Amino acid sequence: MKLPIKELLFCLAFALASTAQAIDIAGAKIDDTIQASNTKLKLNGAGIRYKVIFKVYVAALYLTETQNTVEGIISVPGPKQINLTMLRDVSSDTLGQAFMAGVQKNTEKAERAKLTTQFIQFGQLFSTVPELKKGDMIAMEWVPNVGTNMFINGRKVGETFPDMAFFNAILRIWLGENPVDSALKKQLLGGSSEHH
Question: The whole model's pTM is what?
Answer without folding.
Answer: 0.85
